Amino acid sequence: MKLILLGAPGAGKGTVAKRLTAIDGSVQISTGDILRGAVKEGTELGKKAEAFMKAGDLVPDDLIMGIMEERLQQDDCQSGFLLDGFPRTIPQAEELKSLLTRINQTLDGAINLDVPRDVILDRLTTRRTCVDCGAIYNVKSMPPKVEGVCDKCGGKVVQRDDETEAAISNRLDVYNEKTSPLVNFYEKEGMLLSVTATSSDVVVDSIKGKLGI
Ligand code: ADP
Ligand code: ZN
Question: Which residue's C-alpha comes closest to atom 14 of ligand 1?
Fold first, then answer.
């Protein structure tokens, strides 16, 4: 399947993406993970993106399109992909459309994870992430077995730089202003599949049902 996963920060895109791609073996492409990797490695891209990310602002569209143009043409994308955190603006969505036409790919749909704002706020402030493998934990509902240590890889589990209260509040504003219009965009394209839920089990089952997988 070739899918886009939409949803506010903290809607559970990463978790749902991992479970969906495990079903059909398609690749998860998370622009957030790619950017965090670049920052950690100190690459040119990372240096350009770092300040935007730390403040909870979007990284400029041209940098993101550069990443995606290259990524979507790699071999592992040819049979299926799930875009997690991209597109994030109407210009990115328009450019994705022409990029896909150019490289002869078609999308099967855009899934929107619709989660109430209070649930999102609570999740973001309690979320912790493994700096090495990106695994996601929650200090309240799903802590790692040993505090601060990743169950999967032994890496350090921390609160992300952009998960301070000020950055979270900015990310939600940015989402409302720049990203939420994509729900309408994909609805007009006839591709939207909206799922209202708060638990990832319910979300994954509901998506599986709707996609018939
Ligand atoms: P979340 O969905 O939880 O906000 P992500 O991991 O998807 O987090 O993204 C983290 C940060 O990376 C964003 O706040 C933004 O700065 C940057 N980013 C990720 N994807 C994009 C994108 N498609 N366009 C612009 N900036 C992006
Ligand atoms: Zn880990």
Answer: 56
Strand partners, 195: 113
Contacts within 8 Å (CB) and 24+ apart, 33-36: 33/84, 33/134, 34/67, 34/71, 35/59, 35/67, 36/134
Residue 181 lies in a domain: yes
Q: What ligand 1 atom has the least distance to the C-alpha of 162?
A: 14
Residue 149 CA, ligand 2 centroid: distance in Å: 8
- Total structural domains within the chain: 1
CA distance 93 to 4: 10
Q: Residue 57 falls within a domain, yes or no?
A: yes
Q: Which ligand 1 atom minimizes the distance to the CA of 32?
A: 6
171 is catalytic: yes
Instruction: Decide if 36 is catalytic.
Output: no
Q: Which of 60-69, 130-139, 180-189 has the lowest mean pLDDT?
A: 130-139
Decide whether any atom of ligand 1 lies within 6 Å of the 137 Cβ. no
In a domain, 128, yes or no: no
Domain enclosing residue 191, as ranges: 2-115+165-211
CATH number of the structural domain spanning residue 103: 3.40.50.300
pTM for this prediction: 0.88
pLDDT single digits (tens) 49-98: 999 999 889 999 999 999 999 999 999 999 899 999 999 999 999 999 99
